[in-house]
Amino acid sequence: xxxxxxxQIFHKELDAIYxxxxxxxxxxxxxEQYCNISRLDVALxxxxxxxxxxxxxxxxxxxxxxxxxxxxxxxGETEFYGLPFKVNANTLIPRPETEExxxxxxxxxxxxxxxxxxxILDIGTGSGCIAISLAKNIVxxxxxxxxxxxxxLEQARQNAVLNNVEVDFVAGDILTMTEGDxxxxxxxxxxxxxNPPYVRNLEKLEMQANVLENEPHLALFVADDxxxxxxxxxxxxxxxxxxxxxxxxxEINEYLGPEMIQLxxxxxxxxxxxKQDFFGKDRMVKGTKG
Length: 290
Ligand SMILES: C[S@@+](CC[C@H](N)C(=O)[O-])C[C@H]1O[C@@H](n2cnc3c(N)ncnc32)[C@H](O)[C@@H]1O
Description:
By secondary structure, the protein is an alpha/beta fold. It is built from twelve helices and eleven strands. Bound molecules: S-adenosylmethionine.
């Protein structure tokens, strides 16, 4: 079968769901991954043909796309902060706004003159995207990462190997962690960063079907009546486990900026700042331990 004929089938079946440009881009990614065909060849509609075996994963991917499965789960990987990350149904697909959170932290720790390592803890690490990007870009540093999901941690460990960095991955529940049983007893950090679950159930209506049906709800949702549940627990933890002048960084729900400022100030943080993402939405908060 000619690649250009298969491309037509993708457009016929998917354009109504995703739009022509996005389908074009999916098709590129899939033929590159499964058939090692260059983007240029696909774009130019050359007379390249593919075998029956090569067609098989492409038709499977077409069916998955029809069922709203995100392309990142179909390919099993994505790019974040210029680095490759494996993802599966146990890990949230890293988002561009989280790259902005990583940038905020990286900007706060420009290349170190001293040999002292910046100690960093990422809470709710998922695929490991924040922890691994920071380990790669803040040098020297020592990075730990916590998640309650053993399956997410398994994927995050593989991503650390893939990116050739060392991260100390820890299994634990930030909501029930007490000072006594904590893996972090008597340990303090320069940086605590987190992108915890923050979508209220009432906001489900605003979400796309492919997110709702495929991404792990453990990573996304909080109850309507306690949307700051994770932020309160993490801020309390940070009061105990940040060094003096250590910094706390959060990705936040765009609707809860003022509440987040209040939370950090109530817990004694100084220089609390609310930051907007690329779209101008309140998306990050940082504060310094007083
Ligand atoms: C919004 S996702 C963020 C994942 C990743 N850091 C990112 O930015 O793409 C939240 C993460 O918190 C984890 N999580 C949920 N409840 C938790 C808990 N009680 N303790 C620790 N981690 C938790 C989820 O498994 C998920 O990986």
